Amino acid sequence: MELRLLRLPLVRFFETSFGRVHDRFFVLVTVEGDGATGVGECVADSNPFYSQETTRTAWHIITEFIAPTVLGRDFSHPRDLYPALGIIRGHNMAKAAVEMAFWDMFARSESQPLCRVLGGSDALIRTGIASGVSIGIQNSLEELAERVAVELEAGYRRIKIKVKPGWDIAAVETVRARFGRVPLMVDANAAYRLDEAPALAALDRFELMMIEQPLDYDDLRDHVRLQQQIRTPICLDESLHTVKIAEEAIETGACRIINIKPGRVGGHRESIRMHDMAASRGIPVWHGGMLESGIGRAHNIHLSTLPNFTLPGDVAASRRYYAPDLIDPEIEVRGDGTIAVPTGPGIGVTIVQDRIEAATEERVELRPTH
Questions:
Q1: Out of 95, 160, 164, 261, which one is annotated catalytic?
Q2: Is 162 a catalytic residue?
Q3: Among the options 95, 160, 162, 164, which is catalytic?
Q4: Between 3.50.30.60, 3.30.390.10, 1.10.287.3610, 3.30.365.10, what CATH number should domain 2-112+350-362 receive?
């Protein structure tokens, strides 16, 4: 197993209720076994704002606990890896980076695209996945409108804008006034409190697809209460880091839509389980994004071919974030707002090693100790 700490500058700053970022640090995991190689990208950020995990905690957990647990062991299928890590509590992003690299390696060894190994829908594999775009908080409402215009021109099928108290109603009103009934959702990243329900209810008149994670990241009860006070469907993200919690959220009425991010839940295996659980209850899911490079983005594309990913996800074109990306050709959104599913073995993209080397700030190689 090889770990690299990479730094990539963003094409344009990205701002959420957590703050503004200009570049992205992440851990890239490469695994080798039985003549095959696989890669996975850890989506933990430098700061513990979205999650308790960071790039540094992930590096520590992988090197000190995950690698010694899995290296040198035989696994007949990548779905067996996550249970083997059950002794380690939490740290889903660290687990996911390694687990997803195993899935890529397995698919390559089978000479299959990852989507086939994951159980993707033939229709979505053939036609491609629908792509939406996430737009961060801007310097002005006019700048926000300009960004939306650019993304709609690029073909994206759904617009998501980040909101927080003071940047919500006027922002949504601006988009609706300028662009009419474009499919639109908002993402609060846990920026509100339950006593601010009237402000969130004021968004009902804009007929949004959903409001994503309005309240605290570890709160289900207040989301139940909020959903009873607003018409707009609540979608949960940060709150749902296990399948069990997602099931509780659905059963209690805390949400009507689920965002699935493999890093948040521990990898592809748990993402599939959450997808299947939601499908059995008639709850639609969509794939979130974490400013991944083309490597993580390719993993997301393959997972998004599962049949209950019925809403456009945040899997956007490489050029929105990185120039150049770490892969070639880079991921592109077609004129009809879809992204083609790579057809080669594994994640099916070509990694440009020179770009990896240029972005590398630290590197370590790990081998079995027994």
A1: 261
A2: yes
A3: 162
A4: 3.30.390.10
